[in-house]
Every structure is written in structure tokens, then in C-alpha cells.
Design goal:
single chain; about 575 residues; alpha+beta; 8-stranded antiparallel sheet; 7-stranded mixed sheet; 25 strands; about 30% helix
């Protein structure tokens, strides 16, 4: 199926298609005749109404839609599908096409005078209900009026992040981690998330080879167009020094420079500064340290009564840590043990009793922190922001994180995910943290992680001065809101176990089929981590989006079940 501009010679055929589609809802001949004048498409109106057609090579025209009016305000004048094609995704494709066009043409508001039977579809697609409007054909009949709102290109954090342009993404996860200790063995897989460092990449640089059609799958959903992919640049399993790998390839470095676009890393390093021609200050990454972050939290807390800061102690050796842990354990107090640096929950343990063995702990120094108990939902939270080149702090938003034990699994962002009073408390504190981070010389993305205690107050636990898992959700949401309109709920799921190891072609087939099934329940699937599908413990990462929480939950359940069912592909 393709979508193309309608032709003047098709006016009569399009009119009949629209009438057939209207009749699908059971209206009688008298009603349809009363509507015919309003539903008639005239040849000389087709260009002015921006009418487009969904067409199948074998089946011909399957539907039509139009974007009418002059920016900034317009309306979805048509969105009709042949009855035999209803339920096959034609309406979704036409709607998404029109909304993407509206965004590109500078519309900020698109209204929809909906047939009552079609209202649930538009609401699932993200349109918001307004007041009813009067039918133009049937006297006394009222129709639901819905609207889709778009932010203008110069609004908000997305413009501050890339100046409204596409960007070059550098997946230097291992390189960043190596500044503070050995890189995680998962770093190379996690570097795939660099595809989402901004909402719209022009080029992507990765340490490990990725499936050849992966970026096409992602870009097809997010409307990216061509993306230059430079993968397999590191022979090290974890990912190695990716910035140095680029610097060692003068032709590649020259090509990237010729694009004239922002170069955005997963995290700032000395090698990246050399590649980008930056001169970061000596304290720019100071607050990546969990100890320095805790000191900052303690200084800021008096001005933020809605925040509680857990106590923290330093133990220079494993033995000193064990003594304090046993003392707290005997008193019935759980303790969080942390290394000074770590990502995604690595280097973090929760000790709940005094009978533990000290040997599994690192040698030290270690940070011991009061465990914030509670069963408040949401429990694990994060605030994301960015510091622009001039040192200004821009708020991105708040998210709920999925954490098992101490291991990060994913995050959810979008309307209503975090209760407004809690979100405002986090945001106020997060902005204050951002100002201090900026004063230290840092420029780039940051987040502040929290846990919610039994008293309902958020307790800050660490600062991350880099891209993170939740940042992926914010980027995908920004892109989908931009090209489709509405206010999406977005969830990242970084670890979906597969029932079998999937080589490239089978993985692609699985992802395409699962994306098709998600679309059938009005959800979006974006594959985010494809490189672990052939590991001994095979898994994939995905990003899911929908306009309702129940559909988002249903999509996650569908993906997890489909992933487990892959084992049946190889059963005879």
C-alpha cells in the first residue's frame, strides 16, 4: 500500500468510495442522500483540499483523507476507507500521513468533525474530545468535535537539544563507562539505544554490527527517512573507545563533519571532546559520582521540604562496610551498598539482614545508604533535563522506572504517569540540581533518580550525566507527538526474553509481525535493542507507544508472549 496525492480525474470514484464508507455504519438510503452534497468531491477542489489516496497495487484505491485549511489551524476533512479494507490499517496509515503533513506544514491545531461511529478510532489515535458541532447535512444532528495539537518547532527542550535540526548520534556507552571502571559486558548491546539520542538522527555510529534492516524498521515507524549507519567500528566485546575509532578513520570523521549537524554522544569523554572540538571543564562530570551527588542533594534539601535525602556513609574498606552493615542489620535496618559509579543498577546491592557474607562486596571504598522503605506506587522515578551550550537548564519531564531489585528494566513517560503534585516536587528539585550541574561546567543530558518512601516523599538517589534508558522514551514520545499529534504514552522495555535464538532474517520477520499485531490494537512498536537476539540468553529491547494505558499494557503483554512463542518456530 502506498499513499499518494489524489488526481482530479478520480473525483467521481473518490466520491463513491466516501459514500460506501459512510454506508458501512448502517445508514439508510435517505440519510446517505441527505449527506451526498457534503460528501461530494469535485475535481477542482482536490489540490486545494490536499486530498490523498491510499492505494494497493492489486486492489486499487482503499481510502482517502484530506488536510484542509491554512496553517496554523486546519481540519481533517476526509478520512474514509473502503468497507472491505476496514480493519487492515488503512485508516491508521491515512490519519498518520495527514498528521505528519500537518506538522511539516506548520499547523498547530487540526480539528476533526467525526461521525459518532468513528470517534473511538480518533480518540485511540490521540485526538482529544472538544465540544460537539452541528452536522452540515442533517438538521438537528450533532457530531463529536475532536482536536489534535502540535507544538511549534521552536518550542521546548527538543529545539534546545538540536536547534531544530537532525543530529549525528555516537553510541559510546562503553567509552563513557570506562572512565570510571570496567565497562559492562552489556554496553555494546545498550549502545543500540544511541539511535534515540535525539528525535531525528541523520547518522548513527555504533561499535557493534547491527541487523541491516533494523534502522529501516525504526525509521519507518518514526518517519526518519534515510539514516547513515556506521557500525562495527570496535572489535572489543563491550564496545571500546568509539570516539577514537572515528578519529582513526579520517574519511569517516571528514564525512561526519561535512554534514554540519550537531554531534551528540551517549556520554561526554575526553576522546569525544577531541572529536567534537570541545573543551570541557575539569569538574564537568563531578556529579556522576554518587558521593558528590548525595552531598549536593543534602545542600539543596533545606529549600525543598517535599524531598527527603537518605543518610549516606563512606566505608574505605569492605571490612569497614561489613561492620556497619551488620550493626544496621541487627537493628532491623536495610542498607543500600553502592560503588561510587555505576549504571543501570550495577554496583548496587540491598542488604536486609546482618547474616550476609561480606566477600561478594567489592574491596572498597563503598557508599552505604539508608534504604528508603515503602510500597508507594509509583516507587522508582526519574526527572530528565538538559543543559544547553550556554548553560541554560531545560526541563524534559518525569518518568516511572521499572526496576527489579536494583536492576533497571525500562521506563514509562506520558500524561498522568506521575501524579501532578509528585511530578512538580520532583521537577522543582530536578531544576535546582540542573542549575548546579550547569555551574560545574557540564553541558548535555542529565537525570535525577528518586525512590518514593512510605511517607510519599521522593528521595533522590543519584545523578546521571549522560543519556539514559528513560531518555529513549522521551525521544520517541517527542517524535511520535510531532509526526502524529496527540500526547503519547511511551514505554521502554529493555529486556524481553526470546524463546529461541533468532538469526537476522528470523528476527526481522518476528519484529515486523509483532509490530503489525501491535498496530492492530492501536499501539506502536519500535525495536530498540536487536543485537542480543542470538546471545546464549536471547532477548530484544523494544519501545512501545499508545494513547491509553490499557493499550500500552496490552502491547507489552503481546510482545512478551510473542517473544516466548519464538521457540515454537524451531520445534518439529
Amino acid at each position: 500500500m502506498r499513499i499518494r496525492p489524489a488526481r482530479a480525474a478520480e473525483a467521481t470514484a473518490l466520491t463513491e468510495l466516501v459514500v460506501r464508507s459512510k454506508a458501512y455504519w448502517g445508514y439508510d438510503a435517505t440519510f446517505l442522500e441527505a449527506c451526498r452534497e457534503e460528501l461530494t468531491i469535485r475535481a477542482d477542489e482536490i489540490d486545494g483540499r490536499r486530498i490523498v489516496v491510499a492505494e494497493d497495487e492489486d486492489l486499487g484505491m482503499l481510502g482517502a483523507a484530506s488536510l484542509e485549511g491554512t496553517a496554523p489551524h486546519g481540519r481533517l476533512g476526509l478520512c474514509f476507507v473502503e468497507p472491505h479494507a476496514i480493519g487492515r490499517g488503512v485508516g491508521r496509515a491515512l490519519y498518520s500521513h495527514v498528521m505528519a503533513a500537518a506538522r511539516e506544514l506548520g499547523f498547530t491545531r487540526v480539528t476533526i468533525e467525526s461521525d459518532p461511529n468513528a470517534e473511538p478510532f480518533y480518540r485511540r489515535m490521540g485526538a482529544r474530545p472538544g465540544e460537539d458541532t452541528v452536522s452540515g447535512s442533517i438538521e438537528g444532528r450533532e457530531l463529536p468535535l475532536l482536536e489534535v495539537l502540535f507544538t511549534t518547532p521552536g518550542d521546548g527542550w527538543t529545539h534546545a537539544w538540536t536547534q531544530g535540526r537532525r543530529a549525528i548520534h555516537l553510541g559510546n556507552v562503553a567509552e563513557f563507562q570506562s572512565q570510571f571502571g570496567p565497562a559492562s559486558t552489556e554496553a555494546a548491546h545498550y549502545s543500540c539505544l544511541a539511535a534515540f539520542i535525539s528525535p531525528h538522527p541523520a547518522a548513527l555510529i555504533l561499535p557493534r554490527e547491527v541487523p541491516p534492516d533494523w534502522i529501516d524498521l525504526v525509521g519507518g515507524v518514526l518517519g526518519w527517512g534515510p539514516v547513515e549507519v556506521y557500525d562495527g567500528l570496535s572489535r572489543e566485546r563491550a564496545g571500546g573507545d568509539l570516539s577514537r575509532a572515528v578519529l582513526s578513520r579520517p574519511a569517516l570523521a571528514e564525512r561526519l563533519n561535512s554534514l554540519g549537524l550537531p554531534l551528540l554522544p551517549w556520554g561526554r569523554t575526553g576522546a569525544f571532546a577531541e572529536l567534537a572540538g570541545e573543551s570541557p571543564g575539569p569538574d564537568a562530570l563531578r556529579y556522576e559520582s554518587k558521593r558528590a551527588a548525595h552531598e549536593l542533594f543534602t545542600r539543596l534539601a533545606p529549600d525543598h521540604p517535599g524531598i527527603r535525602v537518605p543518610e549516606q556513609w563512606r566505608a574505605d574498606t569492605r571490612r569497614a562496610a561489613a561492620r556497619l552493615l551488620r550493626k544496621r542489620g541487627r537493628a532491623g535496618r536495610a542498607t543500600v551498598v553502592k560503588t561510587e559509579h555505576g549504571a543501570g543498577g550495577s554496583g548496587t546491592w540491598v542488604i536486609r539482614n546482618h547474616g550476609f557474607r561480606a566477600s561478594p562486596l567489592p574491596r572498597g571504598p563503598l557508599l552505604l545508604e539508608e534504604f528508603v522503605s515503602g510500597t508507594t506506587d509509583p516507587r522508582d522515578l526519574t526527572y530528565d533535563g538538559l543543559v544547553d551550550a550556554e548553560g541554560r537548564v531545560h526541563e524534559v519531564g518525569v518518568a516511572v522506572m521499572d526496576v527489579e531489585g536494583t536492576a533497571y528494566q525500562g521506563a514509562t513517560v506520558g500524561p498522568g504517569v506521575v501524579p501532578p503534585p509528585l511530578a512538580e516536587t520532583m521537577a522543582r528539585f530536578g531544576r535546582a540540581v540542573g542549575e548546579q550541574v550547569a555551574a560545574s561546567g557540564y553541558r548535555g543530558w542529565f537525570d535525577v533518580d528518586f525512590v518514593t518512601g512510605s511517607d510519599g516523599r521522593p528521595a533522590p538517589t543519584e545523578i546521571n550525566l549522560r543519556m539514559t534508558g528513560p531518555s529513549v522514551a522521551f525521544m520517541v514520545k517527542a517524535r511520535l507527538d510531532g509526526i502524529r499529534g496527540g500526547d503519547h504514552l511511551v514505554r521502554t522495555v529493555d529486556h524481553v526474553p526470546l524463546g529461541a535464538r533468532l538469526p537476522g532474517p528470523e528476527l526481522s520477520a518476528f519484529l515486523r509481525e509483532t509490530a503489525r499485531r501491535c498496530a492492530g490494537i492501536d499501539a506502536v512498536l519500535v525495536p530498540s535493542i536487536p543485537t542480543a537476539a542470538f546471545e546464549p540468553a536471547p532477548r530484544v529491547g523494544v519501545v512501545l507507544a499508545a494513547h491509553a494505558r490499557e493499550r500500552l499494557d496490552a502491547a507489552e503483554a503481546l510482545v512478551r508472549a510473542a517473544a516466548q512463542d519464538t521457540g515454537r518456530m524451531f520445534l518439529s
